Amino acid sequence: MPRVSKRQKLLEAAALIVHNQGIDALTLDAVAKQAEVSKGGLLYHFESKEALVKGLVQHMDNIYRENVEGSTKEDSEETGKWTRAFVNTMYKQSLENKEISAGMLAAQGINPDLLKPLQETYDHWQEQIQQDGLDDVQATILRLAVDGLWLSEIFGLGTLDQEMRKRVLETLLEQTHPKEKS
Amino acid sequence: MPRVSKRQKLLEAAALIVHNQGIDALTLDAVAKQAEVSKGGLLYHFESKEALVKGLVQHMDNIYRENVEGSTKEDSEETGKWTRAFVNTMYKQSLENKEISAGMLAAQGINPDLLKPLQETYDHWQEQIQQDGLDDVQATILRLAVDGLWLSEIFGLGTLDQEMRKRVLETLLEQTHPKEKS
DNA sequence: GAAACTATACAGTCCAGATGGTATAGTTTC
DNA sequence: GAAACTATACCATCTGGACTGTATAGTTTC
């Protein structure tokens, strides 16, 4: 009677472990225990550790895609909509669901090739952002800044206080609207 | 009579392994082999794996500090010098010495607390950047953008082509000089 | 100035425990 | 009755790191 499938629970458990204890602590036993699933149950869903990490990356990729692509469709303003969608999504994620980036860290740790799906998604977004009706360099800088925000959250490097974070976001979003002057 | 101390070689070997194969491949045996040092030799210099990673982080911290702080001292223009130093340093590192960020990944993997020295360094820089004579939000955005560039290189997410990267850097640097208008 | 000793910088081996993964037998849910 | 598990035992391999051994450069003692 899996209301929330155990598969989901396993992914969340794995992400949580990576987030809190680092990827060295990501063992099959630990994930099973955290998810309150037997080891057999884990291996029923993910036949290997690599498969688990693959699932983590895919999960992350799905969530990001849904958010970004959904966001572009709701945006009534054509110009800058990809850039806006990216900024909004990444910013939101960096607040809500920090564990989600765990998939990325885990993949880098175990087998960097597993990052491919995410890399392709990102490459696609970067293309859109460069053709978003804005100055391509300026749009790219906005994108990079949000990624920087994300990096700072993941590793705790020069994190901004709430006020500053808010002002940064507002400024970034402002700049996704075409300017009158220069 | 160690010309280049084996300690250095060990650190470089460890960073290379993390960079190429991910941190799961960072075993004492692998590092020793890569550095052409025996395992005993490794443990002479670093009494534990954690100590090795600590060394990696410290090494990274040192290099960054030297670069950023050195750069501020050479800068003849007072306004924006920290922001400029940061942008220049991180950009340079992202090209030259990609393995250097391995320390960060390794620390996150093994024991996130090991990141502390780097975190303190970054917090200090962030303070300086916010009081750099520029608009504090704008300066912070520049800083974040370079970090984003760094993230994109580390994980291969939406990497920019050479031309775009160059234009981005130039634009970022331009913006570290105070503007006449608005 | 030679012998005795110390410190440093490694080499190489060994082992207890952890880990990924297999197997198997049974149980619950739809 | 098949899918989705639980529970547990088991194994081969890997890993950290303790431990012992050794070469050499420098220091002290007489």
UniProtKB/TrEMBL annotation, chains A, B:
Domain HTH tetR-type residue range list: 4-64
InterPro entries attached to this UniProt entry: Homeodomain-like_sf, HTH_TetR, Tet_transcr_reg_TetR-rel_C_sf, TetR_CgmR_C
Residue ranges for the DNA-binding region feature of this UniProt entry: 27-46
Gene3D superfamilies per the UniProt record, alphabetical: Tetracycline Repressor, domain 2 (1.10.357.10)
GO molecular function: DNA binding
Sections of the chain in a coiled coil: none
Key words of the record: DNA-binding, Transcription, Transcription regulation
Protein name: TetR family transcriptional regulator
Protein source organism: Pontibacillus marinus BH030004 = DSM 16465
Lineage: Bacteria, Bacillati, Bacillota, Bacilli, Bacillales
